[in-house]
Amino acid sequence: MTPTFRKSVPWLTSIGLFVVWELGCLLLQVPEYILPRPSASIMAGWEFRDAIWMHAVQTLYTTVVGFGIAVVFGVLLGVFVGSSKAIYDALNPLLIGFNAVPKVAVVPVLVMWFGIGTVPAVLTAFLISFFPIVVNVATGLATLEPELRDVLRSLGAKRRDILFKVGFPRSLPFFFASLKVAITLAFVGSVMAETVASNAGVGYLMMSASSRFQMPLVFAGLLVIAAMGIIMYELFSVIERRSTQWAHRGQQGA
Amino acid sequence: MADAFVDLDRVTLRYGMGDTLALDETSIKIARGEFIAVVGPSGCGKSTLLKLVSGLVRPSSGNVLVDNKEVDGPLKIVGMAFQNPTLLPWRTTLKNILLPLEIVEPHRKNFRKNKDMYIQRAKDLLATVGLSGFEDKFPWQLSGGMQQRASLCRSLIHEPDLLMLDEPFGALDAFTREELWAILQELWTKRPFTVILVTHDLREAAYLADTIYVMSKRPGQVVEMRRNTLPRPRTLETTFTEEYTTLVHELREHISAVRAA
Ligand SMILES: Nc1ncnc2c1ncn2[C@@H]1O[C@H](COP(=O)(O)OP(=O)(O)OP(=O)(O)O)[C@@H](O)[C@H]1O
Ligand SMILES: [Mg+2]
Fold first, then answer.
1. Which CATH superfamily is A39-248 part of?
2. Confidence of residue A53 (pLDDT cuts 50, 70, 90)
3. B18 lines ligand 1 (CB under 6 A)
4. Of B99, B103, B141, the CB nearest to A156
5. What is the pTM for the complete model shown?
6. Does position B3 have pLDDT exceeding 80, yes or no?
7. Size of interface A-B (CB pairs under 8 A)
8. Cα separation of A83 and A144, whole Å?
9. Which of A166, A176, A164 is nearest to A242 (CA)?
């Protein structure tokens, strides 16, 4: 496979999917209010571009803010959890339990506390996305090779030394890997909250479009969310590869 | 021997809730600058012995004295190297070797000020083990044997009085291993430090050590102590002498006896 071909593969598969979707709808004569053709969705997207732009900016904003809080909180909690076996054992069941609660069930609670609007969406994005960050940071810190720990301790290294010299650099790849997962989850959280408890954002736009049976516009909203998810994921992939090259040595053929 | 540098006096160690007796009343005395080797069956407590001497674990009973002081916490005068080189993959070879100097006092305090000197020292050490020119390579760009050489440099950079080696050459091929024996001997001759070498390789023990301890199956005890009077420096030629092969054979017989027991 030549490099240019490899680069174009994801584009080709995406375009292929759209072609299959388009042709399938045409051949099977699927009515538009069930599954609109991609061309219709894109046209609807173009027609309502101003509204979509406004709502997309709102969604991006709530997602990024929620994600930002998740990063800060997730790193702090992850360092805390990963720094000792006892804390890890004590907090792990709680974290797993919390993660198992469907966040859609939390949205009404948030609405009761903060009212309809941006705040519940930001908080839902935060709540849904901090868990993978905590788990990854904690794992990176907790899985230090015993021999390396012995080498450092026998040199008289303090806990802080071990954390700064080994713990943090070691958990960096884990951290970046979790960011990719967390940002896509943050989109899930904010859009979910927007559909039930907001009057702005792509989630709200889709909800109101579907109540007016504008299915092409609903799908245009879906495409916009997917595109934003892909862009953010790729952004964090690039940052990950740049900053933790040593952890990806196998893939460079180095 | 009143002037023992490392003195283990009837040391017993139980792991966990006391169900695993790893070492049972083991006594070893090591003089300053002496090179000892410990051989014995797997699981007999050799690695445990190193941890006791370096203060990483405390004995259940008995005393561990280093330099006439009771060991009551991690010692700061030791260097350690293991079978697994444990280099940090995000640091270059040179930076890996400098790591102890960033941690151990008084180097830590002076690290910024003396950085050039320390880098020169690391480069000299790398040259001794044949790694000149690899300073800026990352560990994953080195072969296993090269990583092990770097790990040896890291264990020596802060000029420790006591070097602990836990099967450091265990994963290497025979040629590289013999080469590293010679290098280790050379380093030790230049600046004598006390060495405790744990090994499964009896030829290695006979090549390097002044004294060889044979341990029993778990719970570990010293069952035999052999002085090794082969002249130094020992070379590959030494390994073909009758004295050397006899020593290796005798050690071999001890081990067989211990394993059968
Ligand atoms: N952290 C630990 N907790 C509980 N038991 C341990 C621990 N470390 C070692 N042991 C037990 O103590 C005994 C001695 O272990 P040690 O690692 O000292 O053996 P060894 O002689 O170094 O073996 P090998 O040659 O295989 O490396 C073993 O039976 C082992 O199971
Ligand atoms: Mg061992």
1. MetI-like (1.10.3720.10)
2. very high
3. no
4. B103
5. 0.80
6. no
7. 66
8. 11
9. A176
